Metallophosphoesterase (Scleromatobacter humisilvae), 388 residues
Amino acid sequence: MNGLWVLSVVVHAYVALRLLPGVVASAGAPSAWLLGVLLAVSAGLVPLGLRRRKGKRTPQEVRRSDLLAWASLTTMGLFSSLFVLTVMRDAVELALLLAGLVGLPRVPGHWLDLSAVGVLALASLLTLVGLYNARKPPRVKTVDVPLKDLPAALHGFKIAQISDMHIGPTIKRPAMKYVVATINKLDVDVVAITGDLVDGNVYELSRHVAPLAGLRSRHGTFFVTGNHEYYSGVQPWLKYLPTLGVRVLINEHVILLHRHAPIVLAGVTDFSAASYDTSHRSDVALAVTGAPRAAVKVLLAHQPRSATAAVSAGFDLQISGHTHGGQFLPWNFFVRFQQPFTHGLHRVKDMLVYVSRGTGYWGPPKRFFAPSEITLLRLVNQTEPVRA
């Protein structure tokens, strides 16, 4: 945690040094003082948003902690945009300086000063819009999944996917109730929860997750772990979820018989699970061991990068999350360096992978060009058009 404080002070100091002179010159000293106070407060708040809460707390302690989380995480979202825009402003300023050295016309200094105020205004706007996007209810996104030689009995088989809900300090029971009510209107065959359901312990969050007991589908609700379940104390959650009628798949499979046609539905633990519990090492091959021949094999895997192993194991479809679609700029562009896909439907050899943008959000309550979703996946014959 000490390292986070040091890093926070350093990056906030950088933004202060780069923006304050321009704000003083273009908007006056009082505005610069306000910015300085904002950055000082932000430097202290941002690391608090990354703390992992441990141990049982009283309801009053939880409420105070949630209020602090709201303040720190919202501030984190604002500073993220401030930092990125400041770096971009410096890059433009450097380019203009180099252009001046080779004889091109120089940009007036007051324009550069005014751009510091522009950075503040744009960062604030992005944060407000991002907050609105993150907090509005997720919409249903319908995606047709074309599979080769799909039996007629399985044509139209519907899977509702919840991913990356992140029930925790800023997402509570009302959001969970909305998701359950929305899915129950879709008349689905299976509900798949592809990890990162929670950000906290069972003692504090069980009542907020409890609405899952109301989910309705023909073949049940299935869950696989994400990395945040391991941060949150995975074992108590694995004991609690079955009491809500949620079947946990830990490197294993079930056979669903739909209109006399079998579907193999398998689930693996998070790709990084072994770092927290060696007995939970993610194993795609083990998940399908002993499975009978079936026309369709579907894998639930939190991270898209399980796809390589899933192809080797003969799966037809992998359903994943984890990426949040990048959640907000500019992180949308960096996800691809850690995962093969950011969002949407993709083909890997003979297998399709669908990656959800997530039903909730993590960290800053902020989404930009990455809307949250409740995904309705519909299996169709390959000859039909794909809506993705």
Summary: The first helix runs from residue 2 to 27. The chain has two domains: 2-134, 138-381. The CA atoms of residues 264 and 291 lie 7 Å apart. The chain has ten helices and twelve strands.
